[in-house]
Amino acid sequence: MTVDPRIAAITARIVERSKPSRELYLHRVRNAAAKGVHRSVLGCGNLAHGFAVCSPSEKVALSGDTVPNLGIITSYNDMLSAHQPFETYPAMIREAAAQAGGIAQVAGGVPAMCDGVTQGQPGMELSLFSRDLIAMAAGIGLSHNMFDSTVYLGVCDKIVPGLMIAAMTFGHLPAVFIPAGPMTTGLPNDEKARVRQLYAEGKIGRDELLDAESKSYHGPGTCTFYGTANSNQMVMEIMGFHMPGASFINPGTPLRDALTREATKRALAITALGNEFTPAGEMIDERSIVNGVIGLHATGGSTNHTMHLVAMARAAGIMLTWQDISELSDIIPLLARVYPNGLADVNHFHAAGGIGYLIGQLLKTGMIHEDVRTVFGHGLQAYAIDVKLGENGTVARERAPDVSHDPKVLATIDKPFQTTGGLKMLTGNLGKAVIKISAVKPERHIIEAPAKIFHDQASLNDAFKEGKLEGNFVAVVRFQGPKANGMPELHKLTTVLGILQDRGQMVALITDGRMSGASGKVPSAIHMTPEAKDGGPISKIREGDIIRLDATTGEINVLVSDAELDAREPAEADLSGNEFGMGRELFAPFRAMTGAAEHGASVFFH
């Protein structure tokens, strides 16, 4: 089936808008690819350094231009659950590469920080900018010019977007992304949230809270809720960077290892030395990017991707905007209920049919582009599958089921959970923001209430403890944008605002900061642009101003006259406490150079 005309029109608009930058990008990619195997340009001394630790036979192979060399970029560390499984991957990849007649080398490592560890801590102010640093670190590894293809080992929040930016920067090389999978199901996410709420209300102590958290995050793999990490995996698969079915297979299983070996062999098969040359920069186009946005809406994915997808697209010369994302949300139905948009975790989602089922449903009515290139070949239909372990430890695939194994988790395209997607853009006299509405009850899509103003999340939490947050209100938490303090996630607000909402108060949040992939039931206008540090209208809101947030019409306004708003002096905040400690001083150039949230909040794109 051909793609829905509304999606085709948005895609065509992106193509037209992107023509100058995309044509320049493709010109550079094709020039780089035309130079052939890049080791051929290296001098003898260069090559000697590049294969000094290789075996004699590998040195002979790498000194010529006929044996493909696979560059591995890894985010392995053994502290973080999502990345610890990558410890064994290089050896597995080298073995699989040798079986396929190639060679593999770890080209470099990239940092991987965990937002779960840094929530509410100074280190969170490094989090968003770590994405651009990851792209730079991957670029350093690949700058040795020794490789015919690449595999990227990454999972979590900023890691995959950073690796994607690197893959597009080195777009003349094929790129396959290899995930590690989610941890097995522990304490249910809704029970974890209940315990957090009890702790915030002072009804239980730290020991009980830590016990619940430890039972939730208990082993190797990603967290099981549908936040940015698992949204990353969905996006990479639906954009064609994973092997079909690879995203949500648990670590340390025979199928997980089989998929890693298969991905290695495929990465070698699509080099310029073979018949299926698939440079990453040519493979990804406007249709691929639109498919990523569609997947995000259909699953109620992470709000962080309203910035990440914009930055990832721009790295390929594609000019995606919040308006494009919002208009696609009006078209794409919500087909998945995964925590925090439902009670299921990603393991339940996968068991219900997973991405393969989801893609199959979207293809039925032309709700996604099928005619795309992927690392697996041509066409997205190949991803509408169920993956299993086959004979002799290989990967076997069969058509995804037509019927959901759990209708409470995955719906059909003709009877979706809601007719529109989970993310929407808001505009008005306060600027632009985004809101995740897939978990917000319809009766809370419109909030009109007086403003209570805070300049950090700790101040709001203190006001809650002191009993000062009474009645209906809109919390304005400003000076949290990328230029102010690196745009930390304000996830610590989720529990407090949720408690007040459960008490019957009408509450909402407006911030130029982030609320993460775990954004839930409280209406939250986030990523407000222009940010307060730039003197944006959010800096002119005064205590008690009436604010109207309307997620149905996509509007957000402070109810004062334009003349009065223009005449007000912007508020100022003392940000000196955010400039030093936990490495924040090292990121001062990032804060000074970053672009706006609507452009990806990146030092690369403005």
Automatic annotation (TrEMBL):
Spell out the PROSITE patterns in the cross-references.
ILVD_EDD_1, ILVD_EDD_2
Q: One GO term of the cellular component aspect?
A: cytosol
* Positions of the Dihydroxy-acid/6-phosphogluconate dehydratase N-terminal domain: 68-381
Instruction: Kindly give the InterPro entries that the UniProt entry links to this protein.
Output: 6-phosphgluc_deHydtase (IPR004786), Dihydro-acid_dehy_C (IPR042096), DiOHA_6PGluconate_deHydtase_CS (IPR020558), ILV_EDD_C (IPR056740), ILV_EDD_N (IPR000581), IlvD/EDD_N (IPR037237)
Q: What is catalysed by this protein?
A: 6-phospho-D-gluconate = 2-dehydro-3-deoxy-6-phospho-D-gluconate + H2O
Query: 4Fe-4S: is it a keyword of this entry?
Result: yes
Q: What is this protein called in UniProt?
A: Phosphogluconate dehydratase
Q: Which organism is it from?
A: Rhizobium quercicola
